[in-house]
Amino acid sequence: MRTEPFSLRLSSPLATASGAIEAREGFLVRYDHRDETGIGEATPLPGWTESLADCERALDRAAEAEVSGGHTAAMLELAADTVPAARHGFATALLDADARADGVPLYRWFDADRRCESVPVNATVGDGDPTETADAVERAVDGGFDCCKLKVGARAVAADVDRVRAVRERVGADVTLRADANGAWSREQASEAFDALAEFGVAYVEQPLAADDLAGHADLRGGPVGVALDESLAHQRADTVLAADAADVLILKPMALGGPGNAHTLALRARERGIEPVVTTTIDGVVARLAALHVAAAVPDIGACGLATGDRLGGDLAPDPATVTDGEMTVPQTDGLGVDPAEVRQDA
């Protein structure tokens, strides 16, 4: 097991609850297994995963354990609930090597019977006034996207409703609209927003309430606008979230869940309970984006996912084999993740 640090500048700062992020820093993980070298990526994100320092320490412990105990011992050092990004890095490298050894793309390692050429993806539009927001969505639709997610919650509810109204009037009824409040609303504000957004056919609102308010989210369900949970999965056990019947949709970030395998398992568990999975990235490098893409490709009939995030980076770890055309991201059909570990460089 070998790790290499990297830093990728963002094309523009990423606003988070922990402050603005100008670069994504993490570690490439390489692991030799079954006569193949697998590649993984551990890219912590404040508020979602462990810190960069904790990620590095966890990977160091796992590397030491692997020397005497192999990959099983290494995985035991990487708990998904405390160091999910570190676990994601090693788990992805292990899965990449396994899929390469079996001669299949990673999504078919999860489900040998699956055949998937592409996955639908959404465009994400940030905060702006009604005209700016409608302009941005129109550009996305002209670029082939038929599903757009609007950031809401930074303004008064009425102002966000005006923005959604402007978008719907501009692009018509055929474009799927989603909203993401990032936990910004109170229960009263969320109720007001859901009532108003129903008029404009908003499919769901992502994380309308605080991450720990599962009861409040459960109360919002049942109307024409669905409830999607995102941050809740970073702060609560998945079993707790599922048991609360608090979501119509689960937003699954493999980096925050401890790896592609965990995300795939949770996607299938959600489906069994009638909850739709949506797979997204945490603004990662190409290795982790491909891992998330393969998770989505392994889920039958999955809806638009938040995977088209490569343009947020000013540079990347390797050329991206997955292209986006008409709102669909191509799924590599070569072995493993679809990127040659030898072509992945921390200084790319």
Topology, number of strands:
13
Helix content: 25-40%
The level 1 CATH classification of the largest domain is Alpha Beta
Q: What is the radius of gyration computed over CA atoms, rounded to a whole number of angstroms?
A: 20 Å
CATH topology call of the largest domain = TIM Barrel
| CATH superfamily descriptor of the largest domain | Enolase-like C-terminal domain
**Span between termini:** 21 Å
What's the average pLDDT?
95
Shape: globular
| Name given to the CATH architecture of the largest domain | Alpha-Beta Barrel
EC number: 4.2.1.113
Function: Converts 2-succinyl-6-hydroxy-2,4-cyclohexadiene-1-carboxylate (SHCHC) to 2-succinylbenzoate (OSB).
Family: Belongs to the mandelate racemase/muconate lactonizing enzyme family. MenC type 1 subfamily.
Catalytic activity: (1R,6R)-6-hydroxy-2-succinyl-cyclohexa-2,4-diene-1-carboxylate = 2-succinylbenzoate + H2O
Short structural description:
The protein has 348 residues and is α/β, with parallel strands linked by helices. The protein has helices at 52-76, 84-102, 106-110, 130-142, 157-171, 187-197, 214-220, 231-235, 238-243, 254-257, 260-272, 286-297; strands at residues 2-16, 19-33, 36-42, 118-120, 123-125, 147-151, 176-180, 202-206, 226-229, 249-252, 276-279, 324-325, 328-330.
